[in-house]
Amino acid sequence: MSQPPLHILLAAPRGFCAGVVRAIDVVEKALQIYGAPVYVRHEIVHNKFVVESLKSKGAIFVEELNEVPDGQAPVIFSAHGVPKSVPEAAAKRNLIAIDATCPLVTKVHREAAIHHKRGRLVILIGHQGHPEVEGTLGQLPPGAVILVEDVEDVEHLRVSDPDNLAWATQTTLSVEDTRDVVEALQKRFPNIVGPHKNDICYATTNRQEAVSAIAPKVEALIVVGSPNSSNSQRLREVAERAGCKVARLILRADEIDWAEFEGIRTLGITAGASAPEVLVEEIMDAFAKRRSITVETVTTAQEDMFFPLPRELREAV
């Protein structure tokens, strides 16, 4: 059966954010300066294609610091951030530690530390087990930060001093879901203190707004990204919430279930903040081989954010 022409709405902004670009640059620059291997604690960003590419250049990915041998090979901390105990342990072993934590995550860490210093209990909105959340929880002593995931968690919160609270969020959450949790916190604890500026990063917000703009106009939408990428999963949820009946998270073209896209005339495509543009092009090429396509870019924001390399690498250069 012949397929109708396919009109693709391509979301902009999409793909790599400044923090991801910086994190990947950190690994590549470290390989140039120190030579292979360099060790990376946890996936530098949540994208298997990126990780495999860096592995091929000499990066070795580990989950814990005790997997890094003693010696002169550097160890890099991922863009998601790490608990304070990790750089402390690296320093005790005299390892060359390079921190690739996204500066917007570092901002959350610093604000949590300030709240703690001022005697406030910090309520962190985020997903249990996510590396960024583990890193933020690990900035302060046990019990100084309480994690909540949803409005229900807020309803069950028990705190000793309701007038001495602050809230912070994981940077890659859904803007809409977070708004509900913050409103629930403010309703229960009117004196709770929030961040000077929303913790959800500019790239997360921009990508969600772009998806919200195109999702109601298409029959299906593809988010290019890895299943363990929080911001990519949120993009899929935003598309569904905006009325798109078929919203799929796909890393590579060979994962496409072609039956799901049979007969559609409009398709939205975006990419999570850790997904390279080459994978977007790969998926568009796969559709172009099967269908007559036209492409329209829908731009909802312009991005020019840039983060310099960590001081450790700038000094080494």
How would you summarize this macromolecular structure in one to three sentences?
By secondary structure, the protein is α/β, with parallel strands linked by helices. 38% of the residues lie in helices and 18% in strands.
Q: In CATH terms, what is the architecture of the largest domain?
A: 3-Layer(aba) Sandwich
Q: Estimate the strand proportion.
A: 15-25%
Which geometry do the CA atoms define? flat
Helical stretch tally: 11
The CATH class designation of the largest domain is Alpha Beta
**How far apart lie the N and C ends?**
59 Å
Number of strands: 12
- Strand order, sheet with most strands: 10-9-11-1-12
Biggest sheet overview: 5 strands, parallel
Secondary-structure element pattern, one letter each: EHEHEEHEHEHEHEHHEHEEHEH
Number of domains: 3
Average pLDDT score: 95
Helix content: 25-40%
Q: Which fold name is given in CATH as the topology of the largest domain?
A: Cobalt-precorrin-4 Transmethylase, domain 1
| Rg over alpha carbons | 21 Å
Low-confidence stretches: none
Structural class: alpha/beta
Provide the fold topology.
Layout: E1 6-12, H1 18-34, E2 38-41, H2 48-57, E3 59-62, E4 75-77, H3 85-92, E5 97-99, H4 103-117, E6 121-125, H5 131-137, E7 145-148, H6 151-155, E8 165-169, H7 175-188, H8 202-214, E9 220-224, H9 230-241, E10 246-250, E11 266-271, H10 277-290, E12 293-299, H11 311-316
Parallel strand pairs: 1-11, 1-12, 2-3, 2-4, 4-5, 6-7, 6-8, 9-10, 9-11
